[in-house]
Amino acid sequence: MSRRKIEAAVIKIFHTIGLLFFIFSVAFPFYWMIVASLKPLIVLAMNPLDLWLDPAELTLKAYQDIWIQFKFGRYFANSIYVSALTVFLTVAFATLAAYSIARLRFRGRTFLSRSILIIYMFPAIVIAVPLYALYTKLELRNNLHGLVLVYLAQTLPVAIYMLHSYFKTVPLDLEAAGLVDGCTRLEVIWRITIPLSLPAMASVALYTFMIAWNEFLFAFLFLDSPSKFTLSRGIMQIADNINVSQQLLMAGAVIATAPIIIIFLVLERHLVKGLTAGSIR
Reduced to 3 states, what is the DSSP secondary structure of residue 140? Predict the structure, then answer.
């Protein structure tokens, strides 16, 4: 066997080992959450390290208790509302902003297109205290719409950057033909640009939804009333209760994690396609 073939075989072995380690490190915590949430509390307390899932022992009592007793359904509904509203506003504003940067000519356009992502130079924890003081003065704390504003500021720069790159790949001739046919600029965006940019817009929507669904820091800072808690904030509230069992916490973690994993697996192709769209003109 030649040296080149040996090197290729070694690289392939290390690649396989690394891939298996990565899959295990990602999948194992979620598997352990499922096992801990489905096992009876007595069995879990007697042997918490037993990872075998016996079908005869399966119980959904933890899910029922956390959904009804701890009003987890309200947290779930709040997260759906906040995430959906954030996605709608982000996609709408990013579409108009990205199209303006890609197509229109105005002073400061180059600087704006190059500085879109400058907000990510500052970690969220750095702006948390000023935002907390500002929200307190503006009476936006304990308000889901105030939380949406923060998420909008987090997701909009990346959304504009992604769509801006994609809009540049849309042929100008198609838009020019629409303008010649009597369409306004907004009609061109609605009838021509948006239909041709659906893969990128789908990836932006998925990215925004995942950010809004999983965010914890600002939800922890700005939400005070349990009736306004999102899932991440609600799980923290339940975890602070010393009387809550590990089984209930794991059930809550599965409820919070499963939807985003399912959505990602279903729409993963659109996300990859949208992220790479516009990279080659």
Answer: coil
